[in-house]
Design brief:
Layout: E1 6-12, H1 16-27, E2 33-35, E3 49-50, H2 52-59, H3 64-68, E4 72-74, E5 76-80, E6 85-90, E7 103-105, H4 108-121, E8 132-137, E9 143-147, E10 152-160, H5 167-171, E11 176-177, E12 196-206, E13 217-220, E14 225-229, E15 246-253, H6 267-277, E16 284-296, E17 300-302, E18 306-309, E19 312-316, E20 322-323, H7 331-352, H8 355-384, H9 389-402, H10 405-416
Parallel strand pairs: 1-2, 1-10, 5-13, 10-19
Antiparallel strand pairs: 3-7, 4-7, 5-6, 8-9, 9-10, 11-17, 12-15, 12-16, 13-14, 14-15, 17-20, 18-19
Helix pairs in contact: 1-4, 1-7, 2-7, 7-8
């Protein structure tokens, strides 16, 4: 598809956040231009949890029913000590509060496929292999955005949905730092000072004596390892014709560890970690590795999600605006909710021209991002507690809290995103 010479809204990044923003605009009669520097969708170990609040928001676009057909409906997250459960984040108990009392488990690539197909049906096609390298004020209304291949486009609104290392955010001169420590995201201290997560999508061969639930996410705190059941993505189904046991696993490596995992862990590394951590005290063999990556746990939020550059408007959404620990799977969810609210705000701004509309988006979503960052930091801190007396005391406290219904419900509401309905 050819790049037009001008567009009202340019969305940079065709991940779930950029696609959702473009879909929201399309449903309001505004045809955005969507560009992405990738040649195709990525199938890496990225987001895989879609929470109740996100499904509520996507229902307004007609997308929730399409997603329900491609994932596993999980009752919640169960935290284990050894083999015994300590605390149950029971999302199923929220059936009196939401139409979606579950966590939908599906790889991010599958959500992107559904979104891209839906957007195509609304007359918008993603323009790939198109990398933004700069923009400048134009004599006309908007910004002249330039691309790596020498082409350019005039855009009134530029939406940065291009990830944590956002080119759009950098070009706009918007700072990106931890809201608690003020450490800039681009600072690059030793990996030993960060908690790391090795995330992998794998097929497991599990001893029949072990029954790993496929209707919950299992977090084994003593071994710092998570098992999340997934359906095999459509793009990989031709590789396995028999019934497979497909999983996302997460292995947490605390700060100061002497062994740092490779950037893309191989099957031998992952198998060794499973063997050493023994979450169910019996063998779990990694039969096939599809994709794996190691992530440093960092938190950051943009100084603002909206900035005028000349007569152009630069707006941030998703990881371009905020990043945090993957604990609880909040990243894709927070970004999708950003995107729907932003799409509506842009449409209203086109109609009324009042910058207070975009400033309101920025302020409200910044506050929600800060709350989510603090919540994920608390969950990561629990995972990070070393084995020994502190882990023992924490386990007792979690068991006690599990018997207190208001505590369980409060945590379930926060994890599901229902707490942030007004944000």
């Amino acid at each position: 598809m050819l790049l037009p010479t001008a567009t009202q809204v340019l969305v940079v990044g065709a991940g779930p956040n950029g696609l959702t923003c473009a879909i929201t605009l399309a449903t309001l009669g505004i045809k955005a231009t969507v560009v992405d520097d990738r040649s195709e969708r990525s199938y890496g170990a990225r987001g895989c949890l879609i929470h109740a609040r996100t499904l509520e928001v996507l229902r307004t676009l007609g997308l929730s029913d399409k997603l329900k057909d491609i994932g596993i409906q999980s009752k919640g997250i169960v935290f284990y000590g050894q083999a015994d459960p300590l605390f149950n984040v029971d999302i199923a108990a929220l059936s009196d509060t939401t139409e979606f009392p579950y966590i939908l488990l599906t790889p991010q690539s599958e959500a992107e496929r559904i979104f891209e197909e839906f957007l195509f049906d609304h007359g918008v096609e993603v323009i790939r292999n198109t990398k933004v390298v700069g923009f400048q004020e134009s004599s006309a209304e908007g910004l002249d955005v330039s691309f790596e291949d020498g082409s350019s486009i005039l855009a009134s609104y530029v939406v940065g949905a291009d990830g944590a290392r956002s080119t759009v955010r950098t070009l706009a001169g918007i700072s990106f730092k931890d809201p608690s420590t003020s450490v800039m995201y681009d600072e690059n201290p030793s990996s030993a000072s960060f908690m790391l997560f090795a995330l992998a999508d794998v097929v497991l061969d599990i001893n029949p004596s072990i029954e790993i639930p496929r209707d919950i996410i299992s977090w084994h705190l003593n071994g710092r390892i998570m098992f999340c059941p997934l359906e095999l993505p459509q793009a990989l189904q031709h590789l396995h014709t028999h019934n497979t046991s497909f999983w996302r696993i997460a292995i947490a490596i605390p700060p100061g560890s002497t062994t740092i995992p490779p950037r893309h862990p191989d099957q031998a590394y992952l198998q060794n970690e499973i063997d050493e951590r023994k979450p169910w005290k019996d063998y779990i063999r990694l039969d096939h590795l599809y994709t794996a990556a190691t992530y440093r746990v960092r938190s950051a939020v943009a100084e603002t999600f909206f900035k005028r550059v000349g007569s152009g408007k630069v707006l941030l959404v998703g990881d371009s605006a905020h990043v945090h620990s993957p604990s609880g799977g909040q990243g894709m969810n927070l970004g999708i909710c950003d995107a729907v609210i932003l799409g509506r705000a842009i449409a209203e701004h086109i109609d009324r021209g009042d910058d207070a509309i975009l400033s309101d988006y920025s302020w409200k979503r910044t506050e929600t991002a800060r709350q989510v960052i603090q919540a994920t930091k608390r969950m990561t801190a629990i995972i990070n507690i070393p084995n020994g007396w502190r882990r023992w005391i924490t386990s007792i406290l979690m068991c006690v809290a599990n018997w207190v219904a208001p505590i369980r419900r409060k945590i379930a509401r926060r994890l599901s995103g229902i707490t942030y309905r007004s944000g």
